[in-house]
Amino acid sequence: MLHTRAWGTPKRRARRPLGPVRTFLVTTAAALAVTATAVPATAAPDEMEPKPASSAWGRDGEPEAPPVRAGENRPPKSARSAKPTEEERAWAKAQETRRSGGQDIQNSEVAPLRWVPEGQGEVPWHEISDLRLTDSLVARINYSNGNLMLAATDFDIAGVGQNLQLTRTYNSFGPPYGQLPYRWWAGYERRLDEFTNTMVVYDDTAGTIRFDENDDGTFTTPDGHSLDFRKNSDGTHTLTDRKSGSKDHYGGHRGPGHGVRLRRRRPRHRGDHPRGTESVLHLR
């Protein structure tokens, strides 16, 4: 076998291959040195610094549930609700008269704004927590004012264009009187009350939305809402949702027991024309 040697060294000092014994000793010493270096890192796994977790609970960890304390729950003492004011009693009486058809809404005069219900329905800037009770009933608690809502879905039929739904909302805060028993408000109901320099709209959850009239005849959008309200040249009113683009058209007849015409610019029902169509909801 031909062996190489370093340049400039005589042939007698040429490098020779290591023998099998020396090769084994060198290999064993190198292995022991590497093992001795790695033993301190693997011998004590508890002393290793944990890697940063991917979440607050650790990698694939389960959150620890706090212990449940044993004891009895004591409900708070009940308190009687405050007696309604004179304005509230007058408003409630007018609501009952209106619902029973005892007053002609079309020929009634515009009255000054005295009292309207506030805080009921879905208020956009309030904090609301939902708790599903059944597959058709959801409890909604308004943490901002304490109103309790029950959102019920009586039926939901899937359609080609839009689902056919019948929903209703219960408000512990006194809502306006509608077609259902008091405190319940159907999802298809809308109402417009006209007062001096103010228009009050009740949405699908019986929420109160006020539009104050400006000197030029336009209406100011209340804070927290993305709605535009305007009066048309024929005396009707149009409410436009900026987000969805839907338009609610209120004719000369206002209040429950009268038709509310809903105009939508985008096709939302089977058979709608792309340029928009009108459908009338008869609330009698």
UniProtKB/TrEMBL annotation:
Residues 141-207 form the DUF6531 domain. Residues 1-22, 38-109, 213-284 are annotated as: Disordered. Keywords: Signal. Residues 260-272 have a biased composition (Basic residues). Residues 83-101, 225-251 have a biased composition (Basic and acidic residues). The keyword Signal applies. It comes from the Bacteria. Pfam families: DUF6531. InterPro entries: DUF6531. Residues 1-43 form the signal peptide. This is DUF6531 domain-containing protein. It comes from Streptomyces pini.
